[in-house]
Specification:
- The structure is a single chain.
- It is built from six helices and 16 strands.
- With about 325 residues, it is α/β, with parallel strands linked by helices.
- It has three domains: about 5-95, Translation factors (Elongation Factor Tu (Ef-tu), domain 3), CATH 2.40.30.10; about 110-215, Rossmann fold; about 230-314, Roll (Ubiquitin-like (UB roll)), CATH 3.10.20.30.
- It has helices spanning about 80-85, 120-130, 150-160, 175-180, 195-205, 250-255; strands spanning about 5-20, 20-25, 40-45, 50-55, 65-70, 90-95, 110-115, 135-145, 165, 185-190, 215, 230-235, 240-245, 275-285, 300, 305-314.
- The two termini are about 20 Å apart.
- The chain has a five-stranded parallel beta sheet, with helices on one face.
- Helix 4 (about 175-180) crosses helix 5 (about 195-205).
- It is globular.
- Bound molecules: FE2/S2 (inorganic) cluster (FES).
- Keywords: 2Fe-2S, Flavoprotein, FMN, Iron, Iron-sulfur, Metal-binding, Methyltransferase, Oxidoreductase, Transferase.
Length: about 325
């Protein structure tokens, strides 16, 4: 489980914003202020049989409540369905303190934000901050249609004519190569389905867009169903001790077995809570959290593996 503060928060508002997206406002029953957060942050929500991550998209200055949006995922693992069925006004949810792997860089300059579907939540919070700071930014929002685009009105209010919508039912699809050409020199942030980020990353590689300007957030595990795990060795740099990681076990499980305590939450490479460092090795990164720069020295042991031997900096 997460090593973060876990709070029992009360649902003070629960409303559908589209037929399959539920917006929840969460308050602490006793404390007037919740832990601070910054745009791009998410919280872990405990659900029956697991944990799910949801971005905060309310106003960070208003710490009286957290606001999240939960899409009912028909083919998901059941967590979103559980929240839709159980989160009513007056009910309580166990929620972690926020964590942010997707913060704005704060360097100024131009920003291009790309949202797909429910991935709009962190993009909305970022847009609000950029608009408040009078930053130079544009937002692209991809969805099937306006009626299936959660929080579209809120995003329009924040962005005005900085917002471009791409609704596939109208035959309008975002072209990743065109977007990247327009985004030259800008910080590029994206949150959405794997198909969207995969298209952007293909274009990034083809055009040589600087990876340090690219930031992404996923809330679904990367789909690599063809991946066949192999065994490998993990060396603990501080002691020289070697641990064998069999093909059918994760590095995180082996670390735990050997009393290297690590926080964890999702265990599918999307929350970032198990992150650790490494100093050498051919790592097979399978997480959806670390950007290309971070992957040079960090890995997610719940999902990522290595070829041969990896030396860990714990
Ligand atoms: S436990 Fe969530 S990324 Fe590893």
């Amino acid at each position: 489980m997460s090593d973060r503060l876990i709070m029992k928060l009360r649902v003070v508002s629960a409303r559908l914003t589209t037929p399959d997206v539920l917006v929840l406002d969460l308050q602490h029953p006793k404390r007037p202020l919740l832990p601070a957060w910054t745009p791009g942050a998410h919280v872990d929500v405990m659900v029956a049989g697991g944990v799910r991550q949801y971005s905060l998209w309310g106003d960070p200055e208003d710490r009286a409540y957290y606001r999240i949006a939960v899409k009912r995922e028909a083919g998901g693992r059941g967590g979103s369905k559980w929240i839709h069925d159980h989160a009513k006004e007056g009910s309580e949810l166990h929620v972690s303190a926020p964590r942010n792997h997707f913060g704005l860089d704060g360097k100024g300059g131009r920003h291009v934000l790309v949202a797909g579907g429910i991935g709009v939540t962190p993009i909305l919070a970022m847009s609000r901050a950029l608009a408040a700071g009078k930053a130079d930014f544009t937002v692209h929002y991809c969805a099937r249609s306006a009626s299936e685009a959660p929080l579209l009105d809120e995003l329009r209010t924040v962005c005005g004519d900085r917002l471009t919508t791409w609704f596939s039912q109208q035959g309008r699809r975002l072209d990743a190569n065109t977007l990247l050409a327009q985004a030259a020199g800008a910080e590029l942030y994206t949150c959405g389905p794997n198909s969207l980020t995969a298209a952007l990353e293909t274009a990034i590689a083809a055009q040589g867009f600087p990876v340090e300007l690219y930031h992404r957030e996923h809330f679904a595990a990367l789909s690599d169903a063809d991946f066949v795990p192999d065994s490998f060795e993990a060396v603990i740099a501080s002691s020289g001790r070697t641990l064998h990681v069999p093909a059918d076990r994760s590095l995180l499980e082996v670390l735990r077995d050997n009393h290297f305590v690590r926080g964890s939450s999702c265990e599918i490479g999307v929350c970032g809570s198990c992150e650790c460092g490494y100093v050498s090795g051919d790592v097979i990164h399978r997480d959806a959290v670390l950007d290309l720069k971070a992957r040079a020295s960090r890995l997610m042991p719940c999902i990522s593996r290595a070829r041969g031997t990896v030396t860990l900096d714990l």
